[in-house]
């Protein structure tokens, strides 16, 4: 089973770290993984995207033009990547700031109001973990427990008090779907 | 039972830093430049001067860095630098001197799009610079082209081993994709830095003071007598001939039944593997030859494969550089075409397949 994923949005939304957390969970589950950022002069407010591949086979190209799953977090990214989702694939998008909706009917389109949920919870930092929770509910390629285990291993001790918040966000994200 | 090794997830640039410490490198000198700054950053984070005693120094410029490497290498120490294209151009004078002085060193170029200050995106347009000279004079670098984060880790040790074996500088010619992407990697086993006694034994040429020898070792590249300078050149050429005989490395992928051949190095070889899968789904049998050493170049391996092919597509992130070596190998036996993107644009696997179909008029 191979999942070829692009996560794309504004810099500062946690796009790259969401991909990293997903890739690390894949590693813990013994999968082959690759994480390829678009590393342009991105900054808060600019666009940022990352290609993540999780597979039980060796990964050839880290660069792709067709994706099983696109996680899209702004209008530019939606305009650019909707046509790059494989037929039968999944487009997951946050409707915040979106005025032109996705139009394809040969893919599964899922709206995840993660920005709204993050604002409501008063914690914008949980935004990307809400999305990850939603993504893993739709495509359980790794378990939320593995994601938490990954956070425990990669986060420095001084940030461990944030783990319960992340766990909560993943659970809440799953409920948004 | 196979020994279980710890698998890490990290960037190619980070893997270089870890591998350097574990190899027992004595010194790293460098100046930050995207997309390779993580090499220096990771070294600074890992603080090897507190553990192995490795020196890590951010120099004031790339010119300073390569001359620090020149100085360190002349004492027999294992020293290295890394940079990206415009920074590597600045190092060319020093690299020529290091090659002339027959000093083992490792230089890493994580290529970005040029010419000029260019872009910070990945590219492969420094192939000519790395393999055909770059600096002045008749010299070669051993050039290794990594295609994965694992290669980035492994080629640090391989590069130094080859550099010391042949007393010549080696280069890892990487690119922004391999430097910036994260993959699984198993790091090499740590080993201690060589002692001064070990260096003296391994490098009798090292400039370390008289040390009981009759003559002081002197490292110089200036020779005003043309006759002697020609002898120096011939000595270098002998070493290069030996490297060409012994050290050609390449990888073949699905060439057994192939009608067409991709030749690609580094990240482009990874993209081509996906292109091969896509082409084969459409009934077009394609294989890949990936040169691992760009110098010495696998001329013979390509010459051997060429007659079995209907055509060869050289895929590079440049305007056509390695294709010249492929054409030298093929000697007109079959058509050789080029696919390239420039200036930091990374092609996708489908583009390469389309190019193959269009240029060789394949009807699927």
Name the CATH superfamily classification of the largest domain in chain B.
Thiamin diphosphate (ThDP)-binding fold, Pyr/PP domains
CATH fold topology of the largest domain in chain B = Rossmann fold
Largest sheet of chain B: 7 strands, mixed
Structural class of chain A: alpha/beta
Give the strand content of chain B: 15-25%
Number of helix segments of chain A? Answer: 6
Q: How many angstroms does the end-to-end distance of chain B come to?
A: 46 Å
Total tally of structural domains of chain B: 2
Radius of gyration of chain B: 21 Å
Instruction: Please identify which CATH superfamily of chain A we are dealing with.
Output: Pyruvate-ferredoxin oxidoreductase, PFOR, domain III
Low-confidence stretches of chain B: none
- How many separate helices of chain B? 14
Write structural notes for this entry:
Chain A has a single domain (2-175), classed as Pyruvate-ferredoxin Oxidoreductase, domain 3. Helix content of chain A is 36%, strand content 24%. Chain A has helices spanning 15-28, 75-81, 114-120, 127-138, 144-154, 163-175, and strands spanning 2-10, 32-37, 47-55, 67-72, 85-93, 108-111. A six-stranded mixed β-sheet of chain A has the order 2-3-1-4-5-6, with helices on both faces. In chain A, strand 4, helix 2 (75-81) and strand 5 (85-93) form a beta-alpha-beta unit. In chain A, helix 1 (15-28) packs across helix 5 (144-154) and helix 4 (127-138) crosses helix 6 (163-175). The two termini of chain A are 23 Å apart. With 364 residues, chain B is an alpha/beta fold. Chain B is 41% helix and 18% strand. Chain B has 14 helices and 14 strands. Chain B has helices spanning 12-23, 37-46, 62-74, 85-90, 92-100, 127-131, 149-166, 176-180, 196-202, 226-246, 267-281, 299-305, 322-330, 349-359, and strands at 8-11, 27-30, 55-58, 79-83, 105-111, 142-144, 169-175, 182-185, 250-253, 260-263, 286-291, 293-295, 311-316, 336-340. In chain B, strand 10, helix 11 and strand 11 form a beta-alpha-beta unit. In chain B, helix 11 (267-281) packs across helix 14 (349-359) and helix 12 (299-305) packs across helix 13. The termini of chain B are far apart. The relative contact order of chain B is 0.13. The mean pLDDT of chain B is 96. The chains are: A alpha/beta (177), B alpha/beta (364). Chain A binds chain B through residues 20, 23-24, 27, 32-37, 39-41, 59-66, and chain B through 7, 9, 34-35, 120-121, 176-177, 180-184, 267, 270-277, 346-351. Strand 2 (32-37) of chain A pairs antiparallel with strand 8 (182-185) of chain B, so a sheet runs across the interface.
